[in-house]
């Protein structure tokens, strides 16, 4: 089977991670794939902020959990978080552009032996006062909106089985 199609079929979202950090080589390959996601008119409205500092990840996790209304860890102990943001003023397709980056990150991660999961609520986290402070601290300037948190690491659980594809997934006319 074609390696790209194999990756797309086999990748699963993982919700329990080992503390072990992924390698710089793996991370750089994953980020490179994210930077090659298609964007409206090739304008590249998204950016990726890599967070591997444990304290910052804990803060982001708490902010995310607060939006969700829980005290659990929505990042499942993952040692790396890639925050995907997109500039709303760059293109009207900024949400789609950022979503394609998220997809590329997760698929590339699987292809290099790293597990991943898309964690929502980045929009709310970075619309908050503290979220805006973090963006400023990180040097992110512009009208950026949170698209998603791509958590990365090595799973500490069984690999999930794929659900059967629904019957009407594809409609041919």
TrEMBL record:
Give the signal peptide range.
none
What Pfam families does the database record attribute to this sequence? Answer: Nitroreductase
Among CDD domains, the record links this protein to:
PnbA_NfnB-like (cd02136)
UniProt keywords, alphabetically: Oxidoreductase
Picking any one GO molecular function of the record gives: oxidoreductase activity
Q: Respond yes or no to whether keyword Oxidoreductase is given for this record.
A: yes
Q: Is Oxidoreductase there in the keyword field?
A: yes
Which residue range or ranges hold the Nitroreductase domain?
8-66, 73-154
Similarity comment: family membership: Belongs to the nitroreductase family.
Its protein name is Diguanylate cyclase
Recall the taxonomic lineage recorded for the source organism: Bacteria, Bacillati, Bacillota, Clostridia, Peptostreptococcales
């Amino acid at each position: 089977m074609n390696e790209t199609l194999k990756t797309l079929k086999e990748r699963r979202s993982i919700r329990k991670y080992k503390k072990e950090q992924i390698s710089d080589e793996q991370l750089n390959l994953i980020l490179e794939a994210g930077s090659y996601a298609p964007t409206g008119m090739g304008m590249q409205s998204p950016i990726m902020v890599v967070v591997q500092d444990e304290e910052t990840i804990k803060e982001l996790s708490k902010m995310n959990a607060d939006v969700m209304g829980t005290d659990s860890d929505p990042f499942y102990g993952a040692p790396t978080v890639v925050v995907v943001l997109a500039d709303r003023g760059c293109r009207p397709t900024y949400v789609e552009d950022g979503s394609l980056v998220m997809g590329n990150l997760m698929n590339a991660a699987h292809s290099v032996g790293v597990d991943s999961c898309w964690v929502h609520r980045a929009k709310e986290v970075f619309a908050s006062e503290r979220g805006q402070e973090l963006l400023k601290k990180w040097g992110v300037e512009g009208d950026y909106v949170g698209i998603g948190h791509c958590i990365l690491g090595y799973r500490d659980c069984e690999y999930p089985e794929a659900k059967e594809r629904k019957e009407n997934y594809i409609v041919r006319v």
